[in-house]
Structure of YitT family protein:
Amino acid sequence: MKKWLMILLAIVITSFGVILLKHANIVTGGTAGLSLSIAYFFSLPFGVTFFLINIPFYIFSMMRMGWNFTFTTIISVSLLSLVTGIDYFLPAFSVSVWVGAIVGGFIIGVGLSLLFMNGSSLGGANILALFLQKRWNIDPGKTTFAFDFIVVMTGFYTVGLVRGLASILSIAVIARVISYFKNEIAKRGTDAAAKEKEKNLKAPTKQHIPVAE
């Protein structure tokens, strides 16, 4: 129960950061950033776009990260899509480009780190980052930044040069925050794997009882 409460808190925190970026009219990386770019360009709801784009990554997650992680990721993505929907009920407001990049990036970084610590993600590059950390102990912040940088570069056409640079700043802030928590993320992941292994070992096995003839 505590795990799901922490995931819900992480989603609320991340949603607030995404809303700040949207009102600063800048993009971020990963599937969230790609969804924001598409939402700007086609005037589509962020939540729906974000959910649909993540579907291919669920397949990779099930193959490489296991069903439990994939399930919590699907729930997290669905919750983020729902929570960010509150933006449609908020009064119109704008956020300074650079304030949005720094504050929004910091908030998203904290939210993502909290998700990672509790065995979940927001799909896309998050799954890749955690997989590479688990397999080769690669800093998830660096993986996130590399993937996000490519996504943000594709968003320059949508938001323009200044906001594109602000977008790069936002993903740098996100990556720095995640890197700060990388040891705790790895530790939580190792502990979760150990508990799951212990649980499987303790699970009762069915014994074959011979039937007398």
